[in-house]
Amino acid sequence: MSRLGDRRNRHDAFYQRAQKGGFAARAVFKLEQIDQKLHLLRKGARVLDLGCKPGSWLQYARKICGEAAPLVGLDRTSLEIEIPGARVLVGDVMSIAPGTLLGELDRFDVVLSDMAPDTSGIRSLDQARSEALFERALEISLATLAPGGSFVGKLFQGPDFQRLQKLLRDRFAEAKVVKPESSRKESLEIYLAGLRFRGAPASLSR
Ligand SMILES: C[S@@+](CC[C@H](N)C(=O)[O-])C[C@H]1O[C@@H](n2cnc3c(N)ncnc32)[C@H](O)[C@@H]1O
After folding, report:
1. What share of the chain is helix, strand, coil (3-state, %, to 5)?
2. 153, 177, 179, 189: most buried, per Cβ within 10 A?
3. What is the enclosing helix (H) or strand (E) of 103?
4. What SS3 state is found at 89?
5. Which residue, among 128, 186, 127, 130, has the nearest Cα to 154 in the 3D structure?
6. Distance 12 CA to ligand 1 centre (A)
7. Above 50 in pLDDT, residue 151?
8. Which of 15, 23, 53, 184 to mutate to test the pocket of ligand 1 (most atoms within 8 A of CB)?
9. Measured from the CA of 93, which atom of ligand 1 is nearest?
10. Residues 206, 106 contacting (CB under 8 angstroms)
11. For the segment 100-111, what is each residue's pLDDT rounded down to a tens digit?
12. CA angle, corner 174, sides to 97 and 167, nearest 5?
């Protein structure tokens, strides 16, 4: 995880910029670069952020979507910073019900996932775990997005890449692959986005 406290990140230019800007992690620039490319976030958008700790994506969403925008975050452990007005849940994405994430909301406009597994160093295992997290985030997006909404999920690129890309193409008008400049070159991570959600099949509605 790209935390500000990581020794590896201390002298990194993105780390320095995140710290100066008051953001919880350098990961903020990944979302900023994805958003500048795909125009996902707008004033008032209802946003779900899966794997939201330490909180920089929620901070960015609050800045772009404004004070009144409903923001919901989920992580396995609680945030150490406060995101004004955000509803932050502690739980596991694999077991939480989409309806619990929605709460009082009818739908989300944007579902984000920057979730990453605890890495083992065994490439095939880490890829499989990342694919499972991505697929679950996609499943949640299909059950909670408003028609026309967007999904972005992190993936360690592996053997299931084509299959996951096809799943996106089936449910969204457009599928995009983004490797933000701030994502380390040596990292296998990429972000897969689905734009303009076609609407939930009846079986996936909450
Ligand atoms: C790279 S960090 C996210 C950084 C965040 N986007 C930010 O900018 O602050 C990945 C997060 O995914 C969370 N995560 C991994 N597996 C999860 C799961 N099964 N359920 C919920 N969160 C999970 C981790 O706890 C971790 O905090």
Report:
1. 35, 25, 40
2. 153
3. none
4. strand
5. 130
6. 21
7. yes
8. 53
9. 20
10. no
11. 999 999 999 999
12. 50
53 is catalytic: no
Q: At CA 147, angle to CA 143 and CA 148, rounded to 5?
A: 125
What structural domains and CATH numbers belong to the chain?
26-204 (3.40.50.150)
Rounded distance between C-alpha atoms, residue 111 and residue 194, angstroms: 10
Q: In the numeric block, which tokens belong to residue 42? A: 């707008």
Adjacent-strand bridge partners of 49 = 73, 112
The residue annotated as part of the active site, out of 43, 53, 63, 154, is 154
Please identify which residue in the block is written with the tokens 């009846």. 202
CA 116 to chain centre: 10
- Claim: this prediction has a pTM higher than 0.90: yes
Backbone angles phi, psi at 203, to 5 degrees: -65, -20
